[in-house]
Structures are given as C-alpha cells and as structure tokens.
Amino acid sequence: MRELRLPEAVAEDMVAHCLEGRPNEACGIIASSDGEVVKVFRMTNADASPVRYSLDTREQFAAYEKLDQERWDLAGVFHSHTRTDAFPSPTDVREAREDVPYIIVSLAQDPATIRAFRIVKENWTDAEGDIQEIPVVVEG
Amino acid sequence: MAVEVRIPTVFRKYTDGRSTVELESGTIGDLVTQLEGRYPGMREQLLTPEGQLHRFVNVYVNDEDARYLDKLDTKVSDGDTVSLLPSVAGG
C-alpha cells in the first residue's frame, strides 16, 4: 500500500472519538468498500488506560460481522496516543496481530496528528516486527 | 450443512486467501485439526505448543465467546458459525 487515503469526515470522526476518550487511549477500526474508506467503528478500550488499549472483543466481533454483511474490508485499526507522538510504541509492535495499517492519532499537539504504519512480522505471534510507515492523505 | 469458519485476514495466507472455510461439526479442537489437515501450519497459528488457544486468538461460536463456553471442547453443530478473531491491542 503506497498511501492510506482517508475522507475528511473519517479522520474527524477518529479524532473526535480519541478526544472524547481522554485521559484514556481510545480505539476502533475503519472499514473500506472497493478500496475507499467508508466507515469508522468507534470501540471501547477494554483496558480503560491512558497507556494501553485493547478492542473490546464483543464489539470487535459485532463490527467484523457488520464487515461481512456489508462486504466491507478491514482497512485499519486506530488508537490514540494521548501524550506521545504518532509512532508505534514497543507495546504497539509487540501486540500487533492484524495485517492491516495501524493508525495512530496523537493528541500530544493541537491539532491532532494522524500517521499509519504496517507492523510486519514473520509470524503473527512474534513480539518483534518491522515498522513501515504508510503516508496518510486526508481528502477534503 | 456444515460449520462455517470465518478466517481473519491475518490467517488468509494459510487458507489460499479464503475468508470462510466449511468444516465438519465436532468440537473446536476438532475444527483446528481439520484446518491443519487442509491448511498445514494453521494449528501452530491457533494453539500454543501446550495445545491451548493462543491468548491472541478469540473464538466465537455464533455470538458466544468460546473462552466462556468449554474452550477447545466447545461443541459446534452443523449450521453454526465459528469466527476467529485476532486480539487487537497495544499502548
């Protein structure tokens, strides 16, 4: 993937969810249809923590069911960094399991910054992975 | 009628890109064995060397989390849908 194109409304929805989640990290997924990002699924951070997140698995299950019904694809996973840059933390790398862009919304500055990365692992259970940035293009 | 198993993107390189696989009814453990028979390497993706579900995998039978049922011994019948979900987490 050369770049991740996000409609402005999608970017705004992700940032709004992250701002509402403060002081904890917020998270969710985005879905695409024929390569176009069409939907943000806001999810509960099951860890309810300012330094950790995990998708609530029941909400994740329901969202994946919706993807299946609508024939959408999982286009990315997003979460916030409330006080640090939009770059994968060691925990992000260790815990990365999905083979899709991991989008990080940093709230450390105003306005928020959005960057996306692929965490490439030989095996999905590996703790180590290579970080590859995917340029994010917000389309107004 | 069979059991439909939904495969997340992370495992599709093992399933020739298939997002769903139809298997015979049994327990979830039986399904893992069938998956391994059809797609070698899948067992290692789903189970620890001790034979337990990886903590990174959530298994839903219809809309119930198998961790709160009988885990690998959970019975799955014809017509049921089994969804494999990778845990999504970080910091």
Q: How would you sum up this structure, described in words?
A:
The complex is a heterodimer of chains A (140) and B (91). With 140 residues, chain A is an alpha/beta fold. Chain A is built from 3 helices and 9 strands; from the N terminus they run βαβββαβαββββ. Chain A has a single domain, classed as Cytidine Deaminase, domain 2 (3-Layer(aba) Sandwich). The radius of gyration of chain A is 14 Å and the shape is globular. The model of chain A has no long low-confidence stretch (mean pLDDT 96). Chain B is α+β, with helices and mostly antiparallel strands and 91 residues long. Helix content of chain B is 18%, strand content 30%. Chain B contains 2 helices and 8 strands. Chain B has a 5-stranded mixed β-sheet, with helices on one face. In chain B, strands 3-6 form a two-stranded antiparallel sheet. In chain B, a hairpin with a 2-residue loop joins β4 and β5. Chain B starts with a strand and ends with a strand. At the A-B interface, β4, α2, β5 and α3 of A face β7 and β8 of B. β4 of chain A pairs antiparallel with β8 of chain B.
SSE blueprint:
The complex is a heterodimer of chains A (140) and B (91).
Chain A: E1 4-7, H1 8-21, E2 27-33, E3 36-43, E4 53-54, H2 57-70, E5 73-81, H3 90-95, E6 102-106, E7 113-120, E8 130-134, E9 136-139
Parallel strand pairs in A: 1-9, 5-6
Antiparallel strand pairs in A: 2-3, 2-5, 6-7, 7-8
Chain B: E1 3-6, E2 20-23, E3 26-27, H1 28-38, H2 42-46, E4 57-61, E5 64-65, E6 75-76, E7 81-86, E8 89-90
Parallel strand pairs in B: 1-7
Antiparallel strand pairs in B: 1-2, 3-6, 4-5, 4-7
**Treating each run of at least 4 consecutive H or I residues as one helix, how many helices of chain B?**
2
Q: Give me the CATH fold name of chain B.
A: Ubiquitin-like (UB roll)
> C-alpha Rg of chain B, in Å?
12 Å
Domains of chain A (count): 1
